[in-house]
């Protein structure tokens, strides 16, 4: 990373190179000659352990690349300040503390500062690992590696990027865990039950979903019925569950709908679940954008949702996609 700074001795602009560690913390600063002007090492919560400055230069963007206040020594993270030296914690309550009731609202990265960085409102987690687009999978356990690789592959498509960018920036907490089978669960508080699809008015709900949990089998796919037989692809299994998360976050979840605290299965028509058709349609877009025309053709038995030439679009589904083609619109009989 390269940054420009004004010389303290004159007005001439000098170029300095910022060399970061795996957390984005400044480790070495070099000048345009390649000479080291500062070397920094840190204790786990950001207190400088080594700070060598042979030329007197002092970098102010330090731990995880955040600015250090010169007067107080506190790190500024945008939403709040952190004390790196005395208390090694935040100085104010997490504004999103209600999403993490089991964690102290003053805890920095759930007390795991060596592997994690401040989430900054980004909320796709693989266990205790915060996912960011195109992050490296090196150094993580096998399941986390497979999840990161799969998410990065999904992100390379326009449709996958649309979904993941939304989920990363949304207030909904998405957590991907290792599971025996691949499935997802929606968790919301009673006052937020109107987040689900507003069936009476045929429009997305207006409430807020708190958590969306995905149990993903990263090794053995259950398989999807496609034009050329059953396709066992764990990455596409995960994409299917992320499509459900995208729908839920946008208020387009049908099946688990509550009205006055009563569960209504209005999203099921003749035994077919509308939200499954929606997810299958979105995953077929991802397949096509990956150059894979072996479209998912069936779900829940004999309902055909694709043929050898194209895949079908649910006629009721108007949530944004990156699909640019005119599709056959199809309703559940």
Note down, in words, how this protein is organized:
The chain is of the alpha+beta class and 333 residues long. It folds into two domains: 2-73, no CATH class; 124-330, no CATH class. It has helices at 142-155, 158-169, 234-249, 274-289; strands spanning 2-6, 13-20, 26-31, 36-42, 48-52, 67-68, 75-76, 81-83, 89-90, 124-126, 129-130, 173-178, 183-187, 211-216, 224-226, 229-231, 257-259, 262-264, 268-269, 272-273, 298-299, 303-304, 313-314, 329-330. The strands form eight sheets. It has a five-stranded antiparallel sheet, with no helix packed on it. It has a five-stranded mixed sheet with strand order 11-10-12-14-13, with helices on one face.
Strand content: 25-35%
Largest sheet: 5 strands, antiparallel
- Write the element-wise H/E pattern from the N-terminal end onward: EEEEEEEEEEEHHEEEEEHEEEEHEEEE
> Outline, from the CA principal axes?
elongated
Strand order of the largest sheet: 1-2-3-4-5
The whole-number mean of residue pLDDT values reads: 80
What is the helical fraction, as a range of percent? 10-25%
- Topology, number of strands: 24
Tally of contiguous helical segments: 4
By secondary-structure content and strand pairing, the structural class works out as: alpha+beta
- Could you tell me how far the N terminus lies from the C terminus, measured between alpha carbons in angstroms? 57 Å
> What count of structural domains?
2
Q: Radius of gyration, rounded?
A: 24 Å
Poorly predicted runs: 1-12, 255-259
